[in-house]
Amino acid sequence: MNPERPCPAGVLFPPRVLAALGAQAARFDVQWVAECASTNSALMELSAQPAGSPVRVLGAARQTAGRGRRGNVWQSWPGASLTFSVRWQFDRPAAQPAGLSLLTGLALARALESFGLTAAKLKWPNDVLVQGAKLAGILIELPAYRASDALAAVIGIGLNLDLPPGTQIDGQTAVASLAQHLPATPDVHELLARILLEMAGLFDHWQDVGFAPFRAAWQQRDAFRDQSVRLFDGQREIVGRNAGVDDDGALLLDTGSGVQRILAGELSLRASS
Ligand code: BTN
Question: For domain 228-269, which architecture applies?
Answer without folding.
Answer: Roll (2.30)
